[in-house]
Write a structure and sequence with these properties.
Strand 9 (188-191) and strand 10 (196-199) form a beta hairpin. The relative contact order is 0.09. The chain has an eight-stranded antiparallel beta sheet with strand order 3-2-4-1-10-9-11-14, with helices on one face. A six-stranded antiparallel beta sheet has the order 5-6-7-8-12-13. It has three domains: 3-247, Glutamine Phosphoribosylpyrophosphate, subunit 1, domain 1; 260-446, 3-Layer(aba) Sandwich (Rossmann fold); 456-602, Glucose-6-phosphate isomerase like protein, domain 1 (Rossmann fold, 3-Layer(aba) Sandwich). By secondary structure, it is of the alpha/beta class. It has 19 helices and 27 strands. Bound molecules: fructose -6-phosphate. Fructose -6-phosphate binds at residues 308-311, 355-357, 360, 363, 407-408, 492, 496, 616-617. Fructose -6-phosphate binds next to helix 9 and helix 17. It catalyses: D-fructose 6-phosphate + L-glutamine = D-glucosamine 6-phosphate + L-glutamate. Homodimer. Residues 293-432, 465-610 form the SIS domain.
Length: 620
C-alpha cells in the first residue's frame, strides 16, 4: 500500500522521486503525486488518479520545467479515506499552499482534528484524513511555541495524531530540508554522498545508495544535503539503526523477464539457498536475532503460527513438520481472526508471525495481542527492520530478496524453509531430535534448491497446459497432508492472478460436499503424495481421482517422477522430483505458480499488478 519517497540532494528531485515511485509501484496504488521545492521559495505540486503514467503525462502537459529543484517528495496512494480521485491524491497542502505532506497509514482521530480545523475556518480540499496534517503543521509553524521551527512543528503535530502513520513534510520556507516521521508504519532513510532520502522501502533509493537507517517507533528525521538527524516526538536526540541493504539494483529490475513474477519464480532456488545459508553451524541450527533463550524454547508447550494469505499457507505446511519433529501442538491461524477470538496464550506459548513484508496490519496486531498476553513472538520476515520483526522477541529473516510481483512466490518457498528452521531449532532445544537427526533434516533442506531448479527446467509443459485451459470457468485443487496447503496456495494464485474461480480442498472432504461441483470438463488439479513415502494416502487419493474422473473432470495431476499408478487417471501429468514427504510442497507449488501466471497471461492480465491488490496490506 502507499509508497512514499522524499529527497534532498544535488540531482533533479523530480527524476529521483519518479524513479523511486516507479520502484514502489509493486506495493499497489490507485493515484500518485509529487511535490518539488525549487530552492527559491516555490513549492510545486502535481497529482493524478490512476497509474504513474497518468501523472507523468500530466507533468509533460504542464511542463516538467516547472518542477526544477533538488528537493522534493512523491507518493503512491492506496485509497482508504476518500475515493481514488485527483483531489484526494497526495501531496496535500495547507490553505497557504506553503506546506505539503504525504502520508501513509490512517489518522484515527482525523474526524476530531478536521472538525477543529473547520471550526477555525479552514476549508478542506479533500475527503482524506491526511490533509488535516498539512493544516496542523502550517498552524504549528506559524504560531505558538513551535513558531518558525519546522521539525518541532512536525513533532508537535505527530504528538496529536492517533493511529499509524508515516508522514513526509516539506515547507516552502525551508527548501533544503525535509522532515519525516513514523509511528507503526514503515520509514527508512537512505544515506548518500551529498544527498539523503526517506522512503517507505529501500527499493525507492537502491539505485543511488545501499546505506540505510531504520527509524524506530515514534521517531522523526530531518534530512538535508549534508546529513540526517533523528529525534523523538519530543525533540530529543534518538538512536536509529544503520544497515547496509544486502541486494542491489539488479534484484529490483526485471532482468529481461516480461514480468517480475516470472523472474521471481526462477529465483526460487537462490531464495531457498540464501534463506538456509548460515543457519547450521558446528552441528547446530542457529536462528538470527534470537532474543528467546534455549531455556524459553524448552519451556514452550504450544506453538501458534499467525499469518495471512500465502504466508498463512506456509504456516499450514509447517504445522506438519513442527508437530512431527517436536511433538508440540501447533495451531495455524489467520492473523485477522486471531485476536478477536481470545486465543489461549501464556508465557510458554511460542507465536510464529510469518510475513514477507513485515508490515501486514493484521499480522502486526496479532503480534501485539500475543505479546500483551505474555507469549513469546518470533517473526519470520523478508524485510529488514520492518515493524513486525521490530515488535517481536526474535526474528528469522528469509533472504528471498525483494519480491516485487504482488503474488508471493519466492517469499512463500523461503517462508516454508524458514518455518522448518524454527521447527528444527525447537526440536534441537527440546531434545526431541538427536543432533544427527537435525543434521540430516537440514541436509535434506539444503538439497531443495537443486530439486526446485529441476522443476523449473520442465515448466514448459505446464505453460502449454495453462494456455489450453485459460478459458475455463473455474479450477479446483485437491491435496492431502502437506499437499492440502499446496492446493490452497494453488487456488489462491489462480484467483488473484487470473480472476478465475478457484478453490482448494482436502481431498478427503470431496465426498462431504465439493464433489457436487464436478462437471464435464472442469479442470481439477490434484497434488499427489509420494507412492513410497505416503503409500496409504497415495492410494486413497488415486481413488479420489478416479471418482472425479468418472464424473467428467479433467484431471491435472502433480505427481512424483516414476509414479506409474496414477498415470491412467491423469488427463495431464506433471512430474516433480522425488523428495522427502515434508519437503514436497517446495517442489509441487512451483508448477501451480507457473500455471496461474500462464493462465493470467493468456487472459491478458498484468501478473505483477493484479486488480484491487496491494503488496503490503497496511490496513486491517
Ligand atoms: C498472495 C499474497 C498474499 C500475502 C499476504 C501476506 O500471493 O502475496 O496473500 O501472502 O498478503 O503478506 P505478508 O507476507 O507481507 O504479510
Amino acid at each position: 500500500m502507499c509508497g512514499i519517497v522524499g529527497y534532498v540532494g544535488h540531482r533533479p528531485a523530480l527524476d529521483v522521486v519518479l524513479g523511486g515511485l516507479r520502484r514502489m509501484e509493486y506495493r499497489g496504488y490507485d493515484s500518485a503525486g509529487v511535490a518539488v521545492l525549487d530552492g527559491a521559495g516555490a513549492l510545486t505540486v502535481e497529482r493524478k488518479a490512476g497509474r504513474l503514467a497518468n501523472l507523468e503525462a500530466e507533468l509533460d502537459a504542464v511542463g516538467r520545467d516547472n518542477f526544477a529543484g533538488t528537493a522534493g517528495m512523491g507518493h503512491t496512494r492506496w485509497a482508504t479515506h476518500g475515493a481514488p480521485i485527483d483531489r484526494n491524491s497526495h501531496p496535500h497542502r495547507d490553505t497557504s499552499q506553503r506546506v505539503a505532506i504525504v502520508h501513509n497509514g490512517i489518522i484515527e482521530n482525523f474526524a476530531a482534528l478536521r472538525a477543529e480545523l473547520e471550526a477555525d475556518g479552514v476549508e478542506m480540499a479533500s475527503d482524506t484524513d491526511s490533509e488535516t496534517a498539512a493544516h496542523l503543521v502550517a498552524r504549528a509553524y506559524a504560531e505558538g511555541d513551535t513558531k518558525g521551527d519546522f521539525a518541532a512543528s512536525v513533532a508537535a503535530v505527530c504528538r496529536r495524531l492517533e493511529g499509524a502513520f508515516t508522514l513526509v513534510v516539506t515547507h516552502a520556507d525551508e527548501p533544503d530540508t525535509i522532515v519525516a516521521a513514523r509511528r507503526s508504519s514503515p520509514l527508512v532513510v537512505g544515506v548518500g554522498d551529498g544527498e539523503h532520502f526517506v522512503a517507505s522501502d529501500v527499493a525507492a533509493f537502491i539505485e543511488h545508495t545501499r546505506e540505510a537507517v531504520e527509524l524506530g517507533q515514534d521517531q522523526l528525521v530531518v534530512i538535508t544535503r549534508e546529513g540526517y538527524d533523528v529525534r523523538d516526538f519530543h525533540g530529543d536526540a534518538a538512536q536509529a539503526k544503520p544497515f547496509t541493504v544486502d541486494w542491489d539494483l539488479s534484484a529490483a529490475e526485471k532482468g529481461g523477464h516480461e514480468y517480475f513474477m516470472l523472474k521471481e519464480i526462477e529465483e526460487q532456488p537462490e531464495a531457498l539457498a540464501n534463506t538456509l545459508r548460515g543457519h547450521f553451524e558446528s552441528g547446530r541450527i542457529i536462528l538470527d536475532e534470537q532474543r528467546i533463550s534455549d531455556q524459553d524454547l524448552r519451556d514452550v508447550d504450544k506453538v501458534f503460527v499467525v499469518a495471512c494469505g500465502s504466508a498463512y499457507h506456509s504456516g499450514l505446511v509447517a504445522k506438519y513438520a513442527i508437530e512431527h519433529w517436536t511433538r508440540l501442538p501447533v495451531e495455524v491461524e489467520l492473523a485477522s481472526e486471531f485476536r478477536y477470538r481470545d486465543p489461549v496464550l501464556d508465557r510458554d506459548t511460542l507465536v510464529v508471525a510469518v510475513s514477507q513484508s513485515g508490515e501486514t496490519a493484521d499480522t502486526l496486531e496479532a503480534v501485539r495481542h500475543a505479546r500483551e498476553q505474555k507469549a513469546r513472538v518470533l517473526a519470520v520476515c523478508n524485510t529488514n527492520g520492518a515493524q513486525i520483526p521490530r515488535e517481536s522477541d526474535a526474528v528469522l529473516y528469509t533472504h528471498a530478496g525483494p519480491e516485487i510481483g504482488v503474488a508471493s512466490t519466492k517469499a512463500f518457498l523461503a517462508q516454508i524453509a524458514a518455518n522448518y528452521l524454527v521447527g528444527l531449532a525447537l526440536a534441537q532445544a527440546r531434545g526431541t531430535k538427536y543432533p544427527d537427526e537435525v543434521a540430516r533434516e537440514f541436509a535434506e533442506l539444503e538439497a531443495m534448491p537443486a530439486a526446485v531448479q529441476k522443476v523449473l527446467s520442465t515448466v514448459e509443459q505446464t505453460r502449454d497446459l495453462g494456455r489450453r485451459i485459460a478459458d475455463s470457468r473455474a479450477v479446483l485443487f485437491l491435496g492431502r497432508h502437506v499437499g492440502f496447503p499446496v492446493a490452497l496456495e494453488g487456488a489462491l494464485k489462480l484467483k488473484e492472478l487470473a480472476y478465475m474461480h478457484a478453490e482448494g480442498f482436502a481431498a478427503g472432504e470431496l465426498k462431504h460436499g465439493p464433489i457436487a461441483l464436478i462437471e464435464d470438463g472442469l479442470p481439477v488439479v490434484v497434488v499427489m503424495p509420494s507412492p513410497k513415502g505416503r503409500a496409504v494416502l497415495h492410494s486413497k487419493l488415486v481413488s479420489n481421482i478416479s471418482e472425479i474422473q468418472a464424473r467428467g473432470a479433467r484431471t491435472i495431476v502433480i505427481a512424483e517422477e516414476g509414479d506409474e499408478t496414477v498415470r491412467p487417471f491423469a488427463d495431464e501429468l506433471i512430474e516433480v522430483p522425488a523428495v522427502p514427504t515434508l519437503l514436497q510442497p517446495l517442489v509441487s507449488t512451483v508448477p501451480l505458480q507457473v500455471l496461474a501466471a500462464e493462465i493470467a497471461r493468456a487472459r491478458g492480465y498484468d501478473v505483477d499488478k493484479p486488480r484491487n491488490l496491494a503488496k503490503s496490506v497496511t490496513v486491517e
